[in-house]
UniProtKB/TrEMBL annotation:
Organism: Flavobacterium cupriresistens
Domain DUF1842: 8-118
InterPro entries xrefs: DUF1842
Official protein name in the record: DUF1842 domain-containing protein
Length: 137
């Protein structure tokens, strides 16, 4: 049992067109356990617009696998649920799903996509973050 988490590590990054005005960006912080092919953590979706989609926090779980070939050495899938508020003037909220997938190199840079209520973003960069605390401040 002590070997179960022996190779676990933290991975942080962003999925999306960083620097593009109004583009949704998914910032992730994940605990990766390669021996179990598992990842879990938090995704924060931000978008420079007012409304219920401007800041969403999602607890996620997923899988990570080695590809064994090419420049992308790992593939990752994430899934989670969060509470989505209806846009004004409506009142209320409902559980909504978040999904993400990406192909990355050993430095956690690559390409991927994500989807959440009424949004589907594909073929965008995945970039590793060295200091997540500064990025989210």
């Amino acid at each position: 049992m002590s070997k179960l988490l022996a190779d676990a590590y933290l991975a942080s990054g962003k999925i999306g067109n960083v620097g593009t005005p109004g583009a949704p960006i998914a910032t992730f912080s994940l605990v990766v356990v390669p021996s179990q092919n598992s990842v879990s953590g938090t995704v924060v979706i931000t978008q420079a617009i007012d409304g219920p989609d401007s800041h969403i926090v999602v607890d996620v779980k997923g899988k990570i696998y080695a590809t064994g070939f090419g420049p992308f050495t790992k593939v990752v899938s994430l899934h989670g649920e969060y509470i989505q508020s209806f846009p004004p003037p409506a009142i209320g909220a409902f559980p909504a799903e978040f999904d993400a997938h990406f192909a990355i190199d050993n430095e956690w840079n690559g390409i991927g996509g994500f989807s959440y209520w009424r949004h589907h973003i594909e073929n965008v960069p995945v970039q590793a973050i060295r200091n997540l605390k500064e990025e989210l401040a």
